[in-house]
C-alpha cells in the first residue's frame, strides 16, 4: 500500500517544469512546509501533490464545527452510524478544499514562473482544469488508500501515509546535509540533537496526568480489593493538542512573509512595506522564531481547551456513575478538571513551542543550515510510530498468546 | 435415470423457481403402514415454487438440484426396506465413513434413508426444498426458510449424516419446550434409524445431562449448552464433565440466538459475602427524591434541569444532578447512614451506587414487564422469548435493589465465576450451521462475525398470507379500543386471532379490556407457561383469541381448527395412556379426532385462516416477521396487521418526536392515521434500534474477544493439568524459573535473595535438596496422591485467581473508555492492559502453587480410611489443609513406610 503511494507521488501532473520547481522549493518556506505533508510529492508536483492535507483540513474544520452546529453535535453522539455520516461529510468537504488548495498552488507556481498557463480562460482553461482534477483525484485516492490501510492493516492509514512521506524524505535530507558541508562534526552533533529531541518528544507525548476515577459499581463488585485497581483513571495528556498548534502557527507565520515576497518586487511604498515584512518573517530572523514560539503556545491552549470542552468529560462521567474521589460530580468536577488541564497544558504548550523552535536553535549551535529538521515532522513521526507499535503489539497478543503458566 | 434428471433441470431455468424440486404427488408413494400419513399435504396440489424469491435462488441452490435428484432416485430403494434394515444401513454407512469414504459420497444415501424414516415415523415426507436446506446446513451455512416450511424437519437428514461419525451433534432450540418436543418428535426418526437421541433441559441433574450428551444427537437450548460448557470448565476432574466436545451444531432460529440474545452473555455466579442491609435502607429514600421536570415540548430534559435525577430510558440509566446529590447526602445523613465527610468521600461513596440502583429498580424495571414475582423471588423475563429465565439474576446489585423494592428477602450479591458470550460459545464448534425464517436482513452480520453465509431456500408452497398496512393511532387508549373492536369482529366471523403483545403487563391489560367487553380469550405469557401447550393447541380453533407475549413468537406451530394430534393425545392419556395395545388405541383415537377435525379445519380456512394482530412494533423487524409467520403456514390462508400508537416505547424513544409533531399539525385523538410519511418514520425508528443493537453486539464482541483468548488459554491449561500425571515436575520447573526471576531481581544482594527464597519457598537452593524434599513428600503419600493434591491445589488456585481476574477485567472495561481523553483507542488499551493483568495473574498463580507445594508438610495418616484410588472423585474441599510454618517440616517424624493409600491430611502453607 505504502509502496503504491510512493510510486504515485512520482507521477507529475501535466505541464510542469521540474527544474524550475526545484529551485522554487529551495527558497520558499511555506511550500517547504506543505511539501512535508505530501512527502516530497509537492516538490515534484505529482498528482498527489496535495497529499492528505485537504483531508486533514477538512477533519479539523469538522471538528471545530461540531460543537457549533447542533445537528452535527447530535450526529456525533449517535455512535457508529453518526460517526460514519460525519466521516462521509469530511470526505465531501475534502473535495472542495482539495480543489481550492490545488488551484492556490497552481497560482503560486505561476507566480514563480514554473507554470505559465493558469487561468480559466482560453488556452489556459484545459490544462488548469486537468491539473486541478488530477490533484483532487490524487488526494481522494490517498484518502481511500489510507482508509484501506486502517481497515485491513495496522494503524491509522492516513497518519501512516504522512509518516511514510516524511520518512521517505529523510535520506535525501541527510545526504543533502553532507553534501552541503563536509563538517562531519557538525552533522554528528546535529544527529545527537535529533536523537535527544526525539527522546524528549516521546517522553512528552506519553506523559499524562492520571486523575483517579471511582465508580460506585466497582467497589460494590470487588470490595476493598479492587478499589485502586489502577485502571480507573482519566489520562489527561500534557500534549493533548498534538501537532495541530504547530500546523496552525507555522501557517500563520509563514503567510505574511510569503505574501510579502510576491509584492517585494513592487516599487514604492508597497514594495518597501513588503520588503520589511519579508525580512521580518524570514526564517532566519530571530523575530520569526519568537513569533512561532508565542503562537504555538497560544494555539496549544486554545485548541486544548476547545477540544476539552467539547468532550464534556464531567457530564459523561456523571452519566456513567463515576466521579473523582472527594470532588462532587457536575460543576465542581468540571472546574477541577479544567484547573488541572490548564496547569498541565502550560507545560505542554511550552514544550511544543520549544520543539517548534528547536531547528532554529540547532542550526544556531551547529551552523548546519541546510537541514530542515522540522519539529513537526518529528512530532508526527513519534506519534504515528508509537501508535502503530501499540497496535502491532495488541495484534500479536490476540493472535498467538504465549502465556507463562505451566 | 438420466433423462429425468434433465427434465428436472429445465423448469428450474424457465421459472427461476425451484419447480424441479416439486415433489412427485405424494399419492404416488406407497404408504407403508403409516398412521398419520393422511395429513393435509395429501390434499394439496403440488405447485410451482414461488417465483417471488427469484433473487434468492442463488447458484448455490441451483447447484444442489442434481444432488437432490440423486436422493430422489434412491428413494424407491429405501421405501422397500424393512424396519430392521434401517439400523443395519446406519451401521453400514458408519463403517463406510470410518473407512475414509468422503461424506459427500455418503450424503445421498443418508438423506434418502433419513427421508424414508421420517416419512414412516412422522408421516411427513421431506420435500425437495427441505432436502436442499438440509444439504446447505451440512455445508455449515445458515438456511433461511420461510416460517412454517418445516425447518425442523429439514435438519433431520443433516443431523443424521453428521451424527454417523459418533462425535455428537448438538441441536439448539430457543426454549426447553421446543427442545423436548423436537427431541421427542424428531427423535423418533433418529431412533428408528438406530441413533441415540438425548435432550438437555434446565431441570436436569448432572448425570442425566451426561447421558444426554453421550448420545449421537443432543437437543438443548443455547443457555443450557453454554452453561454446561462453563460448568464443565469449573470441574476438578475430567471425568465429571458432561459435554464431550464441540464438533457440529445446528442452531434452530439462529438469528434469535446469535443476534437477539447475543447482547447478554452467559454468566455463572456464586454468592459473595455482602451486606444486603443497605439496599433496604436506601430503598426507603427513593420516594424522597424526584425526577427532573421534562420539557413538555420535546419530551426531553431541559439544559438546566431542576430536580434530583434524570432517567435515560434508552440506556436504562439514571444519573443524579448536583441538586440530587445534595438531597441524597441530606437524606442519608438524616438517617444516620453516613457520618462526617461528604457523600463523595472515600467511606461514603458506595451509597451513590446503592441509590442509583434503587432508582433504577423503581423507575426503569417494572414487575410483569421486566420480571415477575414468583414464590417471593424476582424472576427475570427474557425480553426476546417472553419466557422466565429461572435462577438468573441482574448484576451489580440491581437484583437486590429490586428485591428491596418488592419488599421480599434480599439475597446476597453474586460474583461472576465464569462467563461467555453466545458468539464465542458457538465459535467453539468445528462446524456451525443454523436455520431461521428471518436471517436475510442480517446476512452481513452473520458473514462478518461468524463467517456464516445465508442461503435462502424457496418456499414449497406460495405464501398466501395477506400482510395489511399498519394502523396508527395517536394514543394508546384509541389503539386498544380499535384492537378490541377488530378482535370482536374476528371472533364473530369465526376467524382465530393471535394477538402479539410486548410484555406480560400489556397482555394482561388487553385481557382485562376484552374481559370487560365479554369477549372470550386466552392469555399466554410467562405466568401461564404451564398451560402453553394447551393454549397453542387450541389457538387455531374457530373464533379463538389468544393474547400472547413473544413466547408464541418463534417456532410455535398453530394448526388451523385446533391440533387434532394434541387432543388425541389428551384423550389417549385420559383413557389410561400406556400399557398393552396403547399404540393401537391411540391410532384409533387419533383417526376419530382427525375426522372430527377436518370440517373444523375447513371452516377456519373459510373464515380466512389465522389472523395475526400485533399490538406494537418490536425492536427489530425480524421479531415482527416471526410473529407474522405464525399465520399462513404450509400454504394456509392468513392475514396480519400491526397496530401502532405514538405512545409505544419504540415510537417514543426512537421516533423523531413524532407525537408532538402530530399534535402540532392538529391530529385529533381517536382516528387512525395513515400516511406514507408515518410508515417511513416507523421503519426509520426500527432501523435505528437495529443499528444501535448491532453496535452493542459488535462492541460486546470486540471486548469479549480479549476475554475469550484468555479464557481459552486458562481452560486449556486446566485441561493440561487435569491430564498431567507429573505435576511435581511441572511445579519444580516453575519454581526453578521463579527462583531465577527472584535471583535476577535481587542480584546485588545475596542475603536478600536468600531471605526471599526462604520466605517464599522454604528452601535455600533451587536444586538438589529441595527437589529431594519434594520427592520425599511424594513418597510419604504415594506419587498419585501427591499428584492429586497438587492438581486440586493448582485448579483451586487457577479458579480463584481467574474469578478475580474476571472482575478486574470488568472494571478495566468500564474504565477504559476514559482513555479516549488522551486520544487513545479504548479497545486497544483494553487489549494491552487486559493482557498485562492476565500475565500478572499467571505469574501469580505460578509462584503461589510453587510456594504451596514446597511449604506443605505431609503427615502419613493411619491408612484405614484412606480414599485410595477412589479419591479421584473427591472434591478438594474434602482435603484438610492446615497452616504450618516450614521450619516444622524438618521436625516431622519420618514415617517412611507409609501405606500406599495414605490419607492426605496435607498441610497447607501459610499465605505469605
TrEMBL record, chain A:
Membrane topology: Multi-pass membrane protein
Annotated keywords: Membrane, Protein transport, Translocation, Transmembrane, Transmembrane helix, Transport
Keyword Transmembrane helix: yes
Keyword Transmembrane: yes
Biological process terms in GO annotation: protein transport
Localisation: Membrane
Name of the featured protein: Protein translocase subunit SecY
Protein source organism: Geodia barretti (Barrett's horny sponge)
From TrEMBL, chain B:
PROSITE patterns for this protein: HELICASE_ATP_BIND_1 (PS51192), SECA (PS01312), SECA_MOTOR_DEAD (PS51196)
InterPro entries, alphabetized: Helicase_ATP-bd, P-loop_NTPase, SecA, SecA_CS, SecA_DEAD, SecA_motor_DEAD, SecA_preprotein_X-link_dom, SecA_SF2_C
Region (Disordered): 893-912
Protein name as it appears in the record: Protein translocase subunit SecA
Annotated ranges, domain Helicase ATP-binding: 132-291
Membrane topology: Peripheral membrane protein
Similarity comment: family membership: Belongs to the SecA family.
A GO biological process held by the record: protein targeting
GO CC terms, sorted: cytosol; plasma membrane
UniProt source species: Geodia barretti (Barrett's horny sponge)
Domain of life the protein comes from: Eukaryota
Domain SecA family profile: 46-674
UniProt xrefs under Pfam families: P-loop_SecA, SecA_DEAD, SecA_PP_bind, SecA_SW
Biased segments, Low complexity type: 898-912
Location relative to the cell: Cell membrane
GO molecular function, one term: ATP binding
Amino acid at each position: 500500500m505504502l509502496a503504491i503511494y510512493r510510486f504515485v507521488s512520482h507521477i507529475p501532473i501535466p505541464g510542469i517544469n521540474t527544474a524550475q520547481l526545484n529551485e522554487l522549493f529551495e527558497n520558499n518556506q511555506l511550500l517547504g512546509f506543505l511539501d512535508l505533508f505530501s512527502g516530497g510529492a509537492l516538490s515534484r508536483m505529482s498528482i498527489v501533490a496535495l497529499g492528505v492535507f485537504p483531508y486533514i483540513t477538512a477533519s479539523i474544520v469538522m471538528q471545530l464545527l461540531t460543537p457549533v452546529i447542533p445537528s452535527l453535535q447530535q450526529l456525533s453522539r449517535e455512535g457508529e452510524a453518526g460517526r460514519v455520516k460525519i466521516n462521509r461529510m469530511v470526505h465531501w468537504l475534502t473535495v472542495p478544499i482539495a480543489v481550492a488548495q490545488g488551484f492556490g498552488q497552481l497560482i503560486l507556481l505561476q507566480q514563480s514562473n514554473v507554470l505559465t498557463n493558469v487561468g480559466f480562460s482560453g488556452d489556459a482553461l484545459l490544462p488548469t482544469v486537468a491539473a486541478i482534477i488530477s490533484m483532487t483525484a490524487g488526494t481522494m485516492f490517498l484518502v481511500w488508500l489510507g482508509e484501506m490501510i486502517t481497515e485491513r492493516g495496522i494503524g491509522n492509514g492516513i497518519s501512516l501515509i504522512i509518516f511514510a512521506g516524511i520518512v521517505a524524505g529523510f535520506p535525501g535530507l541527510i545526504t543533502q546535509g553532507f553534501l552541503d558541508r563536509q563538517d562531519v562534526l557538525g552533522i554528528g552533533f546535529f544527529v545527537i540533537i535529533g536523537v535527544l529531541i526525539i527522546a524528549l518528544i516521546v517522553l512528552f507525548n506519553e506523559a499524562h496526568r492520571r486523575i483517579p476515577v471511582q465508580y460506585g459499581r466497582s467497589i460494590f463488585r470487588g470490595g476493598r480489593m479492587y478499589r485502586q485497581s489502577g485502571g480507573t483513571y482519566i489520562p489527561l495528556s500534557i500534549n493533548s493538542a498534538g501537532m495541530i498548534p504547530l500546523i496552525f502557527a507555522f501557517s500563520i507565520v509563514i503567510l505574511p512573509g510569503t505574501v510579502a515576497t510576491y509584492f517585494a518586487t513592487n516599487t514604492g511604498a508597497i514594495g518597501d512595506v513588503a520588503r520589511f515584512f519579508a525580512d521580518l518573517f524570514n526564517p532566519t530572523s530571530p523575530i520569526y522564531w519568537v513569533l512561532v514560539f508565542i503562537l504555538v503556545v497560544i494555539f496549544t491552549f486554545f485548541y486544548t481547551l476547545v477540544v476539552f470542552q467539547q468532550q464534556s468529560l464531567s457530564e459523561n462521567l456523571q452519566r456513567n456513575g463515576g466521579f473523582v474521589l472527594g470532588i462532587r460530580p457536575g460543576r465542581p468536577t468540571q472546574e477541577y478538571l479544567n484547573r488541572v488541564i490548564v496547569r498541565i497544558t502550560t507545560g505542554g504548550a511550552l514544550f511544543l513551542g520549544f520543539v517548534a523552535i528547536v531547528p532554529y536553535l540547532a542550526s544556531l549551535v551547529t551552523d548546519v543550515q541546510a537541514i530542515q529538521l522540522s519539529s513537526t515532522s518529528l512530532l508526527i513521526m513519534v506519534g504515528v510510530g508509537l501508535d502503530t507499535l501499540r497496535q502491532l503489539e495488541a495484534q500479536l497478543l490476540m493472535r498467538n498468546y504465549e502465556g507463562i503458566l505451566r | 435415470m438420466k433423462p429425468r434428471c434433465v427434465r428436472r433441470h429445465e423448469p428450474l431455468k424457465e421459472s427461476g423457481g425451484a419447480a424441479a424440486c416439486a415433489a412427485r404427488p405424494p399419492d404416488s408413494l406407497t404408504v407403508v403402514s403409516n398412521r398419520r400419513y393422511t395429513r393435509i399435504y395429501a390434499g394439496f396440489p403440488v405447485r410451482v415454487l414461488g417465483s417471488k424469491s427469484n433473487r434468492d435462488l442463488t447458484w448455490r441452490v441451483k447447484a444442489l438440484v442434481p444432488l437432490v435428484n440423486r436422493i430422489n432416485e434412491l428413494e424407491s430403494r429405501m421405501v422397500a426396506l424393512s424396519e430392521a434394515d434401517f439400523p443395519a444401513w446406519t451401521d453400514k454407512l458408519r463403517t463406510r465413513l470410518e473407512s475414509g469414504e468422503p461424506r459427500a459420497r455418503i450424503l445421498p444415501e443418508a438423506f434418502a434413508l433419513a427421508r424414508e424414516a421420517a416419512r414412516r415415523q412422522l408421516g411427513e415426507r421431506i420435500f425437495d426444498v427441505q432436502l436442499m436446506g438440509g444439504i446447505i446446513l451440512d455445508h455449515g451455512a445458515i438456511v433461511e426458510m420461510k416460517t412454517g416450511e418445516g425447518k425442523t424437519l429439514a435438519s433431520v437428514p443433516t443431523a443424521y449424516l453428521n451424527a454417523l461419525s459418533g462425535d455428537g451433534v448438538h441441536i439448539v432450540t430457543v426454549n426447553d419446550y421446543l427442545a423436548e418436543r423436537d427431541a421427542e418428535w424428531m427423535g423418533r426418526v433418529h431412533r428408528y434409524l438406530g441413533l441415540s437421541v438425548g435432550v438437555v433441559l434446565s431441570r436436569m441433574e448432572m448425570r442425566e445431562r451426561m447421558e444426554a450428551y453421550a448420545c449421537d444427537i443432543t437437543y438443548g437450548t443455547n443457555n443450557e449448552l453454554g452453561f454446561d460448557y462453563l460448568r464443565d470448565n469449573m470441574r476438578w476432574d475430567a471425568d465429571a464433565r458432561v459435554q464431550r466436545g464441540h464438533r457440529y451444531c445446528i442452531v434452530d432460529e439462529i438469528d434469535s440466538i446469535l443476534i437477539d440474545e447475543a447482547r447478554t452473555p452467559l454468566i455463572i455466579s456464586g454468592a459473595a459475602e455482602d451486606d444486603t442491609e443497605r439496599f433496604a435502607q436506601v430503598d426507603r429514600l427513593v420516594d424522597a427524591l424526584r425526577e427532573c421536570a421534562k420539557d413538555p415540548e420535546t419530551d426531553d430534559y431541559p439544559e438546566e434541569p431542576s430536580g434530583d435525577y434524570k432517567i435515560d430510558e434508552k440506556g436504562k440509566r439514571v444519573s443524579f444532578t448536583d441538586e440530587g446529590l445534595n438531597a441524597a447526602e441530606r437524606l442519608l445523613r438524616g438517617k444516620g447512614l453516613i457520618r462526617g465527610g461528604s457523600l463523595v468521600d472515600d467511606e461514603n461513596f458506595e451509597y451513590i451506587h446503592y441509590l442509583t440502583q434503587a432508582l433504577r429498580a423503581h423507575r426503569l424495571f417494572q414487575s410483569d414487564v421486566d420480571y415477575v414475582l414468583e414464590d417471593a423471588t424476582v424472576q427475570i423475563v427474557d425480553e426476546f422469548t417472553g419466557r422466565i429465565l429461572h435462577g438468573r439474576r441482574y448484576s451489580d446489585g440491581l437484583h437486590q435493589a429490586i428485591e428491596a423494592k418488592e419488599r421480599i428477602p434480599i439475597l446476597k450479591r453474586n460474583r461472576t465465576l465464569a462467563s461467555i458470550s453466545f458468539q464465542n460459545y458457538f465459535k467453539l464448534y468445528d462446524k456451525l450451521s443454523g436455520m431461521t425464517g428471518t436471517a436475510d436482513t442480517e446476512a452481513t452480520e452473520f458473514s462478518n462475525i461468524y463467517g456464516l453465509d445465508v442461503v435462502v431456500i424457496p418456499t414449497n408452497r406460495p405464501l398466501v398470507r395477506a400482510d395489511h398496512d399498519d394502523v396508527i393511532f395517536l394514543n394508546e387508549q384509541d389503539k386498544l379500543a380499535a384492537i378490541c373492536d377488530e378482535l370482536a369482529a374476528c371472533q364473530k366471523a369465526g376467524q382465530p386471532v393471535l394477538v402479539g403483545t410486548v410484555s406480560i403487563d400489556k397482555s394482561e391489560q388487553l385481557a382485562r379490556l376484552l374481559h370487560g367487553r365479554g369477549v372470550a380469550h386466552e392469555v399466554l405469557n410467562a405466568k401461564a407457561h404451564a398451560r402453553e401447550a394447551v393454549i397453542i393447541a387450541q389457538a387455531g380453533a374457530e373464533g379463538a383469541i389468544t393474547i400472547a407475549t413473544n413466547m408464541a413468537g418463534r417456532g410455535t406451530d398453530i394448526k388451523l381448527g385446533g391440533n387434532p394430534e394434541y387432543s388425541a393425545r389428551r384423550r389417549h392419556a385420559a383413557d389410561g395412556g400406556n400399557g398393552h395395545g396403547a399404540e393401537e388405541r391411540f391410532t384409533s383415537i387419533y383417526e376419530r379426532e382427525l375426522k372430527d377435525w377436518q370440517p373444523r379445519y375447513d371452516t377456519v380456512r373459510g373464515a380466512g385462516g389465522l389472523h395475526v394482530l400485533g399490538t406494537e412494533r418490536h425492536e427489530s423487524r425480524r421479531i415482527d416477521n416471526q410473529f407474522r409467520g405464525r399465520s399462513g403456514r404450509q400454504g394456509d390462508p392468513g392475514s396480519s396487521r400491526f397496530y401502532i400508537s405514538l405512545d409505544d416505547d419504540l415510537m417514543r424513544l426512537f421516533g423523531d418526536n413524532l407525537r408532538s409533531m402530530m399534535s402540532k399539525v392538529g391530529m385529533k385523538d381517536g382516528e387512525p392515521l395513515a400516511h406514507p410519511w408515518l410508515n417511513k418514520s416507523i421503519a426509520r425508528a426500527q432501523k435505528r434500534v437495529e443499528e444501535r443493537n448491532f453496535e452493542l453486539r459488535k462492541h460486546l464482541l470486540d471486548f469479549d474477544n480479549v476475554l475469550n483468548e484468555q479464557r481459552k488459554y486458562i481452560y486449556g491449561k486446566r485441561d493440561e493439568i487435569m491430564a498431567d500425571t507429573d505435576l511435581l515436575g511441572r511445579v519444580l520447573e516453575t519454581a526453578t524459573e521463579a527462583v531465577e526471576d527472584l535471583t535476577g531481581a535481587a542480584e546485588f544482594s545475596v542475603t536478600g535473595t536468600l531471605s526471599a527464597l526462604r520466605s517464599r519457598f522454604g528452601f535455600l537452593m533451587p536444586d538438589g535438596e529441595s527437589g529431594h524434599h519434594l520427592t520425599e513428600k511424594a513418597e510419604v503419600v504415594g506419587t498419585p496422591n501427591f499428584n492429586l493434591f497438587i492438581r486440586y491445589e493448582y485448579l483451586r488456585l487457577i479458579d480463584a485467581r481467574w474469578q478475580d481476574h474476571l472482575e478486574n477485567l470488568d472494571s478495566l472495561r468500564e474504565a477504559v473508555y476514559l482513555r479516549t481523553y488522551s486520544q487513545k483507542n479504548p479497545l486497544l488499551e483494553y487489549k494491552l492492559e487486559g493482557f498485562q493483568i492476565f500475565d500478572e495473574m499467571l505469574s501469580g498463580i505460578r509462584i503461589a502453587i510453587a510456594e504451596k507445594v514446597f511449604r506443605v508438610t505431609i503427615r502419613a495418616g493411619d491408612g484405614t480410611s484412606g480414599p485410595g484410588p477412589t479419591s479421584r472423585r473427591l472434591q478438594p474441599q474434602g482435603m484438610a489443609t492446615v497452616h504450618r510454618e516450614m521450619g516444622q517440616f524438618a521436625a516431622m517424624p519420618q514415617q517412611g513406610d507409609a501405606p500406599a493409600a495414605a490419607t492426605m491430611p496435607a498441610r497447607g502453607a501459610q499465605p505469605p
